[in-house]
TrEMBL record:
Statement: the UniProt record of this protein carries the keyword Zinc: yes
Protein name: ATP-dependent Lon protease
Keywords: Hydrolase, Metal-binding, Protease, Zinc, Zinc-finger
Keyword Transmembrane assigned: no
Organism: Vigna unguiculata (Cowpea)
Secretion signal span: none
InterPro entries membership: Lon_prtase_N, Lon_prtase_N_sf, PUA-like_sf, TPR-like_helical_dom_sf, TPR_rpt, Znf_RING, Znf_RING/FYVE/PHD, Znf_RING_CS
UniProt GO BP: proteolysis
C-alpha cells in the first residue's frame, strides 16, 4: 500500500490527535463504584499512553476497560482513535523500517478494520456526535474505501452541519482520493487515455498484455502482427499467437467495470466486424467457384489473415469472387463459401478448407481494413417455361458442360492409369465456370448439382 494513499497528517488528524477523558459518574446500574473506578483508571492510563504515543499500550488498557464495561462510547472512541493512529503509523513507515511488526503481527489493514468496528458501534451509540462519523470515515479512508468514507462524512454533516472537522475532512478526502489515485470523487478512475489502445486509440477491448508489458486490443495486436511479429510499441519480438494468447482478465474487468457503456460500445463495434449482417459478406477475391465445390486454401496475405480471423469468430462464411478481366472490377456474380476447417499456422498464416454454398449477386462493395465487403442478393433459380428458346439454350448449355466434364474426367483417369509423369490435365472448369457464372441467375441449381 503506497503511503501517499493514506491521509497525510493534516486536518483529518487534528481532531483525532487527542482522546477524550473519562468522566467518572455512576450511570451504570450493573457495575459497582469500585469497578467503575477501576475502569476509569484503565482509561486514564490508556489516555496517558496515547498521549505519549505508546499506542499498543493504550489499546491494551482500553481493551481491558472494554472487557469490563462494553459498549461505553468513550472507551470505543478512544480505542478506535488508537487503532487509527497505529495503523496510519505502520502504513507510512518506510520499507526498511518495516521489519518490526505492530501488535504481535497485526497488519495495518487489520488495525484499520478494528478501528472501523469500534467506530461503527460508536455511530450506533452516538449517532448525533460528529466525532463518531469522523472516526468511521478515517478508518474507511485507511481501508481506501473512499466512496464510503465520503458517505459517512456527509451523514455526519447532516447531524452537525457546522462541524469544521467534518468539513475539513471532506475537502481533504476529495484531495486525497483524486490526487493520489486518479479517482474521481465517485470512486471511478477518470476517463483519460490510460485505458486506450495505442493502435486504435480507443478504449481497450479484450486487452492482451504482451510479455514486454504493453497492452493492446486483441484484434489490434494481431492485425499488427500480420505484418511482423514485433510489439508495435517497443519492437520486442513476440512469440504469441491468437490461439495461445489469452485476454488480460483483470485489466478487462477493471475497464469493463469502470467504463461499462463505452466498453459495450466497443463490443458492439467489434461484433459488427465479425458478424457483418445477413446480406453482407467479406470477399475473398481469387477465382470463380460453383456451389458444392471443396478445396483447400493457404491464407498468407495480411488483409486476408485479418478477414479469416474475423470470419472464424463469426459465422465462418465469406464470398469467393473474381475480378472481371474485361473491366478489372469485381464480377457481378459470386458464390458464398463456408470455412469447414481452419488451421492457424505458427507464422500467422492459415490453412483453410472451404466448401461453396449459395450463389449471390453483388449489389455494392467497399473496402474494409484492406479487404472487400459486399452487400449481396441471393440468387433464386427460375426455370424458363417449357417450350421457350431460353429453356432450350439452357438445356443445351448444360448438356455441353456435362459432356465436357465427362470427357475431362475420362482423360484424367487415363492419365492416372498411365503413370504420373504427365499429371497435368487442364481443367475445363476454369473456362466454363466463367461462362456459367454469368448465366448463374438462369441455371437451375439442380443442373449444376447433377453435373
Ligand atoms: Zn485497439
Ligand atoms: Zn512492447
Amino acid at each position: 500500500m503506497a503511503s501517499s494513499l493514506s491521509p497525510s497528517p493534516s486536518s483529518l488528524d487534528q481532531t483525532l490527535r487527542d482522546v477524550d477523558d473519562y468522566v467518572l459518574e455512576n450511570k451504570s446500574e450493573d457495575l459497582s463504584w469500585d469497578t467503575l473506578h477501576y475502569v476509569y483508571e484503565l482509561v486514564q492510563n490508556g489516555n496517558a499512553a496515547f498521549r505519549e504515543n505508546r499506542m499498543e499500550e493504550a489499546i491494551n488498557f482500553y481493551s481491558r476497560a472494554n472487557n469490563i464495561k462494553s459498549g461505553d462510547p468513550i472507551i470505543l472512541s478512544n480505542r478506535s482513535a488508537a487503532y487509527i493512529r497505529i495503523s496510519q503509523y505502520f502504513m507510512r513507515r518506510t520499507p526498511s523500517s518495516s521489519e518490526c511488526r505492530p501488535l504481535s503481527g497485526l497488519e495495518p489493514t487489520t488495525l484499520a478494520e478494528l478501528a472501523l468496528k469500534d467506530a461503527e458501534k460508536l455511530v450506533e451509540l452516538q449517532s448525533n456526535a460528529a466525532k463518531s462519523y469522523l472516526l468511521k470515515a478515517n478508518a474507511l479512508l485507511l481501508l481506501e474505501k473512499y466512496e464510503k468514507a465520503r458517505d459517512v462524512i456527509l451523514s455526519g454533516l447532516q447531524v452537525d452541519p457546522f462541524s469544521n472537522s467534518l468539513r475539513d475532512s471532506l475537502q481533504h478526502l476529495e484531495r486525497v482520493s483524486s490526487s493520489s489515485t486518479g479517482m474521481s470523487t465517485h470512486g471511478q478512475p477518470e476517463r483519460n487515455d490510460d485505458f486506450d489502445c495505442t493502435l486504435c486509440l480507443k478504449l481497450l477491448y479484450e486487452p492482451v498484455t504482451t510479455p514486454c508489458g504493453h497492452s493492446f486490443c486483441r484484434s489490434c495486436l494481431f492485425q499488427s502482427m500480420d505484418r511482423g511479429n514485433r510489439c508495435p510499441l517497443c519492437r520486442t519480438v513476440l512469440f504469441i499467437s491468437p490461439r495461445t494468447c489469452s485476454i488480460s482478465v483483470t485489466l478487462k474487468n477493471i475497464i469493463q467495470k469502470n467504463f461499462p457503456e463505452e466498453y459495450a460500445e466497443r463490443k458492439q463495434e467489434q461484433d459488427g466486424l465479425i458478424n457483418a449482417g445477413v446480406d453482407l459478406l467479406p470477399l475473398f477475391v481469387m477465382d470463380v467457384v460453383i456451389p458444392c465445390q471443396r478445396f483447400p486454401l493457404n491464407i498468407f496475405e495480411p488483409r486476408y489473415r485479418l478477414m479469416v480471423r474475423r470470419i472464424m469468430e463469426g459465422n465462418h462464411r465469406m464470398g469467393m469472387a473474381i475480378l472481371d478481366s474485361s473491366s478489372g472490377s469485381l464480377a457481378e456474380f459470386a458464390c458464398e463459401v463456408e470455412i469447414t476447417e481452419c488451421e492457424p499456422l505458427p507464422d500467422g498464416r492459415f490453412y483453410i478448407e472451404i466448401e461453396s454454398r449459395r450463389r449471390f449477386r453483388i449489389i455494392q462493395s467497399w473496402d474494409q481494413d484492406g479487404y472487400r465487403v459486399a452487400e449481396v442478393e441471393w440468387i433464386q433459380d427460375i426455370l424458363p417455361p417449357e417450350g421457350t428458346s431460353e429453356r432450350e439454350n439452357l438445356l443445351e448449355l448444360t448438356c455441353n458442360a456435362a459432356e465436357t466434364a465427362r470427357s475431362w474426367i475420362a482423360r484424367a483417369k487415363e492419365v492416372a492409369r498411365h503413370g504420373s509423369d504427365c499429371s497435368f490435365v487442364p481443367s475445363p472448369i476454369g473456362g466454363l465456370r466463367r461462362d456459367w457464372i454469368s448465366y448463374a441467375s438462369e441455371i437451375p441449381r439442380s443442373f449444376i448439382l447433377c453435373f
